[in-house]
What does this fold into?
Amino acid sequence: VADGLSMFDGTDHCYFHSGPLGSHPVWDSRLFNYSNYEVLRFLLSNLRWFIEKYQFDGFRFDGVQSMLYKHRGQGHIEKFDDYFGSSVDGDAIMYLTLANDLLHSLRPNMITISEDVSGMVTMCRPISEGGMGFDYRLAMGIPDKWIAMLKKLKDEDWDMGNIVYTLTNRRYKEPCIAYAESHDQSLVGDKTMAFWLMDKEMYENMSVLSPMTPVISRGLALHKMIRLITFALGGEGYLTFFGNEFGHPEWVDFPRAGNNDSCHHARRRWDLPKDQLLRYRFLRAFERDMLHLEGKYPWLTSTQYVQVKNENDKVIAFERGGSLFVFNFHPEKSFSDYRIGTSLAGKHRILLNSDDAAYEGFKRINAAGEYFTAPTPTDGLPHSLQLYLPSRTCMVLRPEDTL
It folds into this structure.
């Protein structure tokens, strides 16, 4: 092309590998030859330029899996040997290590994030330990799992054990960024999470002046629950894809030949949560309050213990950062005096619950109530407390003496 580096000097190997090794089989893009010193100088100087010119304090490296392997991410990782075999691109690993060393040397507080779904070992370990030096890996399997469930499964068929496995499937001390949705789920050809939940009713029944329909009720409830359990259990960091915090409808589409170069869907409707007559504001309020809650009682830096994943009741409960998180995903059943095991003894208070009126809930949970533990071992833990769990709700509790 005339406006890029490919064929810049009339050859296909000036900055890239020649032949099939230098072309991605799916993306129609080129692959750098990281063994070339001039390529390394070019890429590393670009990183430094963005820091010095625009004061960047973080970088997300896109498509890292296509760099790590000579099969460009199109092969299968089935065992640990696959991380060290002949299919691994050692030159690319060296570049990524150099990039992290440079970035963290120039800015000690720099954050680097790797988009790698293969789970390459030592990706997020310090270079001094033989790692590549990334601070976080994007937990890409999480949003894919949520969208797949919304597309293919009835609510009553959701597998609690599989949800927990997906959210906790990461190596100890290799931090991950959890997220419920990203551009991969909402680009043209797909829909945002909110649109999968509520579809065309978002055009007619998101007004507070219209009746609360079963579709909107389900959509609002699950949207809140999915975000909270992803935030609380899915990683050591949390990413909100722009618009997901208030349930942006429809999809993202950029001008192209297929849509007559239209910009109609190449935007975010930031006005929606500002309109007091629309229900989007309740979803944004829930996002705000769960983020503030983690800021006040941090859990992202803590390990988690999952004590309940009941398939029949569709209940998940776990502890993290000194707080107790409880989710009832059942589409119909509410449970009175549901006993949950806990290691956190004493009187508990509810800090956040999705059924609160502030989030367009039905106010079935007594947010001002006092919940006392009993010395009754349950779920393998020494104490337990009994809670009312309305269907499709979640809550966060904490011992009163830690507030």
